[in-house]
Amino acid sequence: MSLKNNQPTILVTGANGQLGSELRVLSVSYPTYNFLFVTRNELEISDPVAVRNYFDNNKIHHCINCAAYTAVDKAETEKENAFKVNADAVGYLAKACDKHQTQLIHISTDYVFDGTATEPIEENEHVNPLGVYGMSKLRGEQMAISNLENTIIIRTSWVYSSFGNNFVKTMLRLMKEKESINVVSDQRGCPTYAADLAAAIMQIVTKRTTNNEQHTTGIFNYSNSGITNWYEFALAIKELSGSNCMVNPIPTSQYPTPAKRPQYSVLDTSKIQQTFGIIIPEWIDSLKKCLAILAAK
């Protein structure tokens, strides 16, 4: 890829994931930036030498770390791999960003909380992850902040997209294959359309570049507006897609998984809205957009 030397360069790791793919789609709307999209084949972020060399050889102004080990249940038996990608690698990126005065935006998760909250969770609430995945992501946050003062961490939840594997696509597939499905109804949270999160990230990058707000750092929450549960989410997918599949609500106790899920992971997003002027769409409106894209594929 030929880069224009006079334009800021944005490195996006995890380029083939849901968020990375949405940022790639969005990048054409930002011609004043150079974009470098890398997968682990092009940059193994868990290799400190590879990270150091990549930053030495490329002038990077912003790094958006979308790379992550996201297999929540598998992480319980693959702890080393989870920490390698979600924690150690974040530290390597943060150190490289610090050396080269690069601004880092790192993506984290609602799984850093234990789900015992009863009202929307603010950024400064006590963290207490329930499983290995959440522990590794929390350690990644700590590695980012301890190695780089100029870090923004965005915690998000229930991410889906027209790309990759996610709840929405799984529901659409199951609704075609089965006459009825059971979906957990007692875990509450906020779906996040990765395209909306990508747009919010680029709004942050632009503000930090043009308004000299590069010193705005810290942890921010982002999810779509509105509160739901997995059953209601599935019901909306059914209705909007025109499926005849029966969707039945069940308690978490009837759907045991190796990793325990937070019962309540509604994130308070007022801080990111107020700090960067971001307008967050309702989750149902974003779901409609995603389903329209999937239907057109």
How are the SSEs placed, and which strands pair?
Elements (H helix, E strand, L loop, with lengths): L8 E5 L4 H10 L6 E5 L9 H10 L4 E4 L13 H22 L2 E7 L22 H16 L3 E6 L2 E2 L6 H11 L2 E5 L3 E2 L2 E2 H17 L7 E4 L6 E2 H12 L4 E5 L19 H7 L6 H14 L1
Parallel strand pairs: 1-2, 1-3, 3-4, 4-5, 5-10, 6-9, 7-12
Antiparallel strand pairs: 8-11
Helix pairs in contact: 1-6, 2-3, 3-4, 5-7, 7-9
Q: What is the helix content?
A: 40-55%
Judged by helices, strands and strand pairing, the structural class is alpha/beta
Inertia-based shape: globular
Biggest sheet features: 6 strands, parallel
CATH-defined architecture of the domain at 9-162 and 194-225 and 266-281: 3-Layer(aba) Sandwich
> Ranges with pLDDT <50 over ≥5 residues?
none
Report strand order across the widest sheet. Answer: 2-1-3-4-5-10
- How far is the first residue's CA from the last residue's CA? 28 Å
The beta-strand count equals 12
Write structural notes for this entry:
The two termini are 28 Å apart. Helix 7 (230-241) packs across helix 9. Helix 3 links the parallel strand 3 (62-65) and strand 4 (103-109). This protein has a domain at 9-162 and 194-225 and 266-281: 3-Layer(aba) Sandwich (Rossmann fold), CATH 3.40.50. The model has no long low-confidence stretch (mean pLDDT 95). The protein has helices at 18-27, 48-57, 79-100, 132-147, 167-177, 194-210, 230-241, 270-276, 283-296; strands at 9-13, 34-38, 62-65, 103-109, 151-156, 159-160, 180-184, 188-189, 192-193, 218-221, 228-229, 246-250. The chain is built from 9 helices and 12 strands. The longest helix has 22 residues, at 79-100. With 297 residues, the chain is of the alpha/beta class. The strands form 4 sheets. Strands 2-1-3-4-5-10 form a 6-stranded parallel sheet, sandwiched between helices. Strands 6-9 form a two-stranded parallel ribbon. A two-stranded parallel ribbon has the order 7-12.
